[in-house]
């Protein structure tokens, strides 16, 4: 539990709530698992082991700097299973002020882009491409458990819509992160190569 001294850190009790949710996996992984040489298999195992280090629980912290200004830090909830990765960010406001909701949009999309870049680069080094789906919906993601409508939709987008090596965004994301916020913070999904809006 948070102490009074931690008043700038929001309560993070796990709940079944609206979350930005992404499901990502490696293309051709199943086939490669049964038909690869020893050297490549060792590289695959090393990659899977490294993915386990990504696992985390959601956390959000707001720090008022002594010299002025504010620092924001958001850690997504991340679960891994074999070559599957689930990433989520609860969309509860990290603070009451509307301007700080804009900060949350920046951190969510920006951190997700950076995480994808890291995973994609690591996979590409051993010959794999990534594919996935992302949406906004209700999800429970804590203590090693993940379930909910957002996971179902994100995994469906990955399997049925993405087709190519990319991460497809659902309409719910573009509706949630409205044009107003995208304009205010200067974020466009078109500027993120592996993020493509769902048609």
Mind explaining what this structure looks like?
With 199 residues, this protein is α+β, with helices and mostly antiparallel strands. The chain has a single domain (4-197), classed as Alpha-Beta Plaits, CATH 3.30.70. It contains six helices and nine strands, in the order E-H-H-E-E-E-E-H-E-E-H-E-H-H-E. Strand 2 and strand 3 (70-75) form a beta hairpin. The longest helix is centred in the middle third of the chain and has 28 residues, at 98-125. The radius of gyration is 18 Å and the shape is globular. Mean pLDDT is 78; it is low at 1-11 and 189-199.
In short:
The protein has six helices and nine strands; from the N terminus they run E-H-H-E-E-E-E-H-E-E-H-E-H-H-E. The protein is an alpha+beta fold and 199 residues long. Strands 1, 4, 5, 6, 7, 8 and 9 form a seven-stranded mixed β-sheet that branches. A two-stranded antiparallel sheet has the order 2-3.
